[in-house]
Amino acid sequence: MIHESQVPRSCDRCYAVKERCEWTAGAVKCERCTRVGHMCESKRPIKRPGRPPAPFLQPPVKQAKVVTHTNTIEDSPAELIKDMIPSPLTSATVDASIWKTVLSTVEHLSQSDLALLDRAVHQDDFTQKLVIGPSFYEGHRQKLVYHLLSSRQIVLDGYLAFALSYGDKVQVNDSYKRAASALLTLRSLQVKSRLDITSCLMLGWQILHFVLKVGGGELLEICNQTLSLIKPHYISEKYFESAYFTFLTSLVFTETAECLIKTRMPTLRVDHPAASNQIDGCVGLCTGLLPHLYDLAVINVDMQKRSQTQDGAVADASDLQTKLEDIKLKIRDWKPHIPEDFCTKFTALEVSHMLCQTQVTQTAALLIIHRLQHPFGTEDGTASALASTILSHIDMTVHITGKTPMCVDLSLIVACLEVEDEGERAQRLRSFSSIGSYSGVFQDRIKSLITQVWAARRRRPTFYWYHLGDILSPFS
């Protein structure tokens, strides 16, 4: 018989996420639980050392089903999910009924909270707003559920705030309280381990989508805070996992779009080795364009800083013009990596949407470059042709698939800045805004932004793209 004192014991949370449980002499909590604010305890049953008896040597998913059916779950939810998914970062396919059973084991949550989490995690009509199509649903859900179980105290308020934002008036009011708590957690988070990195990413992603649904003024703050915490680990490539690119690219693309419009410096350049050929659940085939958009945003800021002459042109900017021509050639010649099984691996809708994303994002970047070289109101023929290309591609895709592709809002804004007729702009925004399709507040925000720029176009005889930051400085 082995006595309890003879068995080395990590705390339950470190054990669940397979992290080293380190203690400082005289401390009442391990270092990890102290850092992330967890309750530090060891209440799981003592297990015999060595191999388990033969009857328990079953495949992970099958074992989870047996436990579920007999209702004798002794492990914590995080331990159960660990049994079901050998690694939290793999893409194993697990039956949705098992996800729901695991979700129901989360402690200290009310039935209403569980119903909200079920809405946010399991319901397809909710998930389809967040990823391109059904081919990405299961991988997306796995990561949501894993972090709900392995780092619940960090991510829970973010999950619930996002889910509540789709509810009735009372639920939306409650969502702000949850979001405030989630934002406080994000601001105080210390990122040191692999789980910390992905938990931070998941929390920031949830808060971002809450903001997209109910407002929009804090988009840059949320993206910057999250990406700044992740950046040192992303650059080192020591811990960052490519399986989480969908969540990363959602934050990066949103921040870069905001920075391009408001003439601000983005936080993170996505040049991870795995990114160039990644087919992403958020930006599809456009991952290879993200570094170019970052570089374009940097040039935009530099040109604004040098726009010191009376007419607003950039002073002594030959080096920037050279950089601009270089990035123009790279974007114009860029082609996405399309694997041979692309059309068979993904649905027809997903293929159409990803091709549309690629075409309109590339064209929008070229239109931004055009307006960095030529002020608004000049060289309008080229600008109108690029804008028409963007709008016609989105129009055709919506007509064929019945749905607006994700991540086309930046392209839509860039194109509408060339459409003078206010009624036509309003019609385009109603029909083509991918975020506006589920957030009227965001659609109103885009409309207000474009209206302000067109008002400035009528007041000012000459201004370039890099002047938008000054024009939109009061805009949230």
From TrEMBL:
UniProt-listed InterPro entries: Fun_TF (IPR021858), Zn2-C6_fun-type_DNA-bd_sf (IPR036864)
Keywords, in A-Z order: Nucleus
UniProt KW Transmembrane keyword: no
A GO molecular-function descriptor: zinc ion binding
Pfam family, any one: Fungal_trans_2
Source domain of life: Eukaryota
Protein name: Fungal transcriptional regulatory protein
Native source species: Pochonia chlamydosporia 170
